[in-house]
Amino acid sequence: MAATNSSKFYKEKGLVRTSITLRPETIQTLENMAKQHKLTQGEIVDAFARLLESGNLSDQLFGVHIEAIREEKIAEKERRKELKKKALELIKSGQVQ
What we know:
4 helices, mainly alpha, Ribbon-helix-helix protein, CopG family
């Protein structure tokens, strides 16, 4: 499909093509759900968005998962900081060039 044709297709369907970065596990979950429900991955994402918009997903439950992701990000940042610190110490000590 040519670029102009795909642009026209998305416009006609009211879609916006975008890219987001996801963990491999998330991609696999989307693929599995899409197959199970005979939908596209985009339609599965739309369903999740509608669930969030509807308010039927408990704020408390959602908050637990948001907090878990934040904690993972903080832990990863600390891990990288520690690795960088160790690398600098090795360089300063002359063990690594």
